[in-house]
Amino acid sequence: MIKKVLTLGLGxxxxxxxxxxxxxxxxxxxxxxxxxxxxxxxxxxxxxDVADVELMTKLISEHDAVVSALPYFLNKTIALxxxxxGCHYFDLTEDVETTTYIRGLSxxxxxxxxxxxxxxxxxIGIIGAHLSKEFEKIRSIEMRVGALPKYPNGEMGYSFxxxxxxxxxxxxxxxxxxxDGKRKQxxxxxxxxxxxxxxxxxxxFYTSGGLGTMCETYDGKVDKxxxxxxxxxxxCYLMNxxxxxxxxxxxxxxxxxxLKNAKPVVEEDVVLIYAVSEGxxxxxxxxxxxxxxxxxxxxxxxxxxxxxxxxAASLVAVIEMVANGSLPxxxxxxxxxxxxxxxxxxxxxxxxx
Length: 353
Prior knowledge:
The chain has about 350 residues and is an alpha/beta fold. It folds into two domains: about 5-120 and about 310-350, Rossmann fold (3-Layer(aba) Sandwich), CATH 3.40.50.720; about 125-300, Dihydrodipicolinate Reductase, domain 2, CATH 3.30.360.10. Helix content is about 30%, strand content about 30%. Strands 7, 8, 9, 10, 11, 12, 13 and 14 form an eight-stranded mixed β-sheet that branches. Helix 2 crosses helix 3 and helix 3 (about 75-85) packs parallel to helix 4.
């Protein structure tokens, strides 16, 4: 049973996770410093250092579930403590190595270990699996997500609407895919394609982590499975120049600082979610598609960016499903095994309708 939830990391996404959870659970939010918002948060906020193992062990032991909205490199320790304390664990990581570690913990866990509960990986995998489930034989699953400024400027056509650390990480690390029926690694920022959505031109290219565990799940079952990030045209070329030609892949911290300084956060953003699956049913080849454009919304009188609410809502909906028994109560949860219908029928998941 989930009654008390600890939320770690009170940036925009972590704060909204706390807001949404507080509608159904007793929530405590924690960060190194108290966040400054021009409104009162509907949950208790404490300060502390997540690197303090003794403190985190005490706090996690007092809660039924812990949510990490921290940078991916802080998640291993939190997940380990949660596993040791029998506390349900959820996070938003796109980092493959971190997920592999948490999956190892899940093998002996008495609680749920559910990383990758955000947007991509996260709900995009749930949607991709949903589009494919009616086929007797699947030919392909293609998933595309873009978190973009609504009003792009400059040649890069981008602003950081979420963690610069996460963006750089997914641009530098190799991505996984299935091509010609074979599971393989592909280089991020490669495989560029043009996409036209509702008359607007975009580009999409490989980035790491977006598929979560789907390549394992669909290995031997599809000819093609891949994930690409959507950006405005020209972005891919410039990022390749920075990361590879200028060799900035070897200095992630400097790359992050340059990008954050050049492209600060904007409030007006849009999240594009697109997925398509092809396969055979009753002897006929068919194609299923999903598209949604998500914009900022008001929740309890406060405006939240599209990237914030889509990421937070996906995670909170999964927690609701564990709490109501529609997902297992222990072990590793793969996003593609989550029912889209059930997620949309949760209080928080209904935001995606």
